[in-house]
Automatic annotation (TrEMBL):
Keywords: Cobalamin biosynthesis, Glycosyltransferase, Transferase. PANTHER family: NICOTINATE-NUCLEOTIDE--DIMETHYLBENZIMIDAZOLE PHOSPHORIBOSYLTRANSFERASE (PTHR43463). One of its GO terms (biological process) is cobalamin biosynthetic process. Pathway: Nucleoside biosynthesis; alpha-ribazole biosynthesis; alpha-ribazole from 5,6-dimethylbenzimidazole: step 1/2. The lineage of its organism: Bacteria, Bacillati, Actinomycetota, Actinomycetes, Jiangellales. This is Nicotinate-nucleotide--dimethylbenzimidazole phosphoribosyltransferase. NCBIfam families: cobT_DBIPRT, PRK00105.1. The active site is at E321. Catalyzes the synthesis of alpha-ribazole-5'-phosphate from nicotinate mononucleotide (NAMN) and 5,6-dimethylbenzimidazole (DMB). It comes from Jiangella alkaliphila. Belongs to the CobT family. Its EC number is 2.4.2.21. The keyword 4Fe-4S does not apply.
Length: 381
């Protein structure tokens, strides 16, 4: 039985501050000037906190979950593309021809496509996980996009897919999505969860021109006013009112990953909007999320602030699918491997003859404070 949304929230425990501190201390004693691996050290310490152990395991089986759905708000003219492109891109991803497949092959990640609500007349194609809740959301500018039940069902579908992957050995979850019109829903979620003005978090999505982007801002504004007029509401109501079925499914992926103490890499503005909803539902989830890249879409630029750390990459990507998150996978693996594989300064002191410059190394490593011992975790012995 898939847990309820409340049970999923309940299963998320805080990350482990002790493992974090141990990793920080270990970093200080590794064979490098302290702090010289910069943000890779920050990430390594966070991975230890996520795994509740130091050193953290080196992720070897990353899996990307691409959640797909369509959007009723498309009727407002907020996208340059027909809705059929969503189903077409789902078929492309499952057949291996999308950008995300090229990157997944490069970084050795499994790709799982989950249809939670695309518009289609027939069955979903072979190879696509069929978790359709309904055929597209309602128009969020005029009414709640989902009922609470539909929203819960999509969250639980995402959690179920993630839990099955984790049972099968996945040790790093990567989030992705496809959904024509979903940058409008994402902008609405960013505005609702951060208090930002719609003009500051709404962009051209998949190449909308300037005039129609201004109209898109108005649509987001209308949706927020409608939602506000409906009265005070919690995170689930906000997600159901303004989000998409793929946002909800990705919330489920994030909750399940956090519950299993597995890092979850966030992609662009769409998965970022899902991350805001997940953190609003279960604040401890934030500790398990890694911002993979900064999307060029304006909302995406705000995500790192909300997660409390800069994204790992900024390559001006604005495609979605999970492309930027997947590109960050080797960084996550390297950050963990540094903590498991590197020699310590103490090891180096014991074997100075293996390093160049007779006497120079001894002198150089005499300068840093020696390991205090006891607290730092051990990597290779
Ligand atoms: O994730 C992002 O940062 C991102 C930024 C711009 C566009 N997208 C993708 O473009 C599609 C939505 O664009 P639009 O203009 O139809 O809202 C959807 O399939 C997303 O995957 C995604
Ligand atoms: C072609 C295309 C590919 C995509 N991949 C993710 N969103 C997309 C939107 C479009 C339009």
């Amino acid at each position: 039985m898939t847990p309820t949304v409340e049970e999923l929230v309940e299963q998320v425990r805080p990350v482990d501050r002790t493992a974090y501190a141990q990793a920080r201390e270990r970093h200080a004693g590794l064979a490098k000037p302290p702090g010289s691996l910069g943000r890779l050290e920050d990430l390594g310490a966070r991975l230890a906190a996520i795994a509740h152990r130091c050193p953290p395991p080196v992720p070897s089986s990353p899996a990307l979950v691409v959640a797909a759905a369509d959007h009723g708000v498309h009727a407002q003219g907020v996208s340059d593309w027909p809705q059929e492109v969503t189903a077409a891109m789902v078929a492309t991803v499952v057949s291996g021809g999308a950008a995300v497949n090229a990157i997944a092959r490069t970084v050795g990640a499994q790709v799982v496509v989950v249809d939670v609500g695309t518009l289609r007349l027939g069955p979903v194609p072979d190879g696509v996980r069929d978790e359709r809740v309904r055929s597209a959301t309602r128009d969020l500018a005029v009414e709640p996009a989902m009922t609470l039940d539909e929203c819960r069902t999509a969250i639980r579908a995402g959690a179920r897919v993630a839990a099955e992957l984790i049972d099968g050995g996945t040790d790093l979850l990567v989030t992705g999505e496809v959904g024509i019109g979903n940058t409008t829903a994402s902008a609405a979620l960013f505005a609702a969860f951060t208090g930002a003005d719609p003009a500051d978090v709404t962009g051209k999505g998949a190449n909308l021109d300037d005039g129609r982007t201004a109209h898109k801002v108005d649509v987001v504004r209308t949706a927020l006013a409608r939602h506000a007029a409906a009265g005070r509401s919690g995170p689930l109501e906000t997600l159901a009112s303004l989000g998409g079925l793929e946002h909800a499914a990705l919330v489920g992926v994030m909750l399940a990953g956090a519950a299993a103490r597995i890092p979850v890499v966030v992609d662009g503005v769409v998965t970022g909007a899902a991350a805001l909803a997940a953190v609003a539902l279960a604040p401890e989830v934030a500790g398990y999320l890694v911002a993979g890249h900064t999307s060029a879409e304006p909302g995406g630029r705000r995500l790192p602030d909300r997660l409390g750390e800069p994204a790992l990459l900024d390559l001006s990507l604005r495609l979605g699918e999970g492309t930027g998150a997947l590109l960050a996978v080797p960084l996550v693996q390297a950050a963990a491997r540094v903590l498991t594989d590197m020699a310590t300064l103490a090891d180096v002191t014991r074997a100075p003859s293996t390093l160049p410059g007779p006497g120079a190394v001894d002198a150089a490593i005499a300068a840093p404070a020696p390991l205090r011992g006891g607290e730092a975790c051990r990597g290779r012995s």
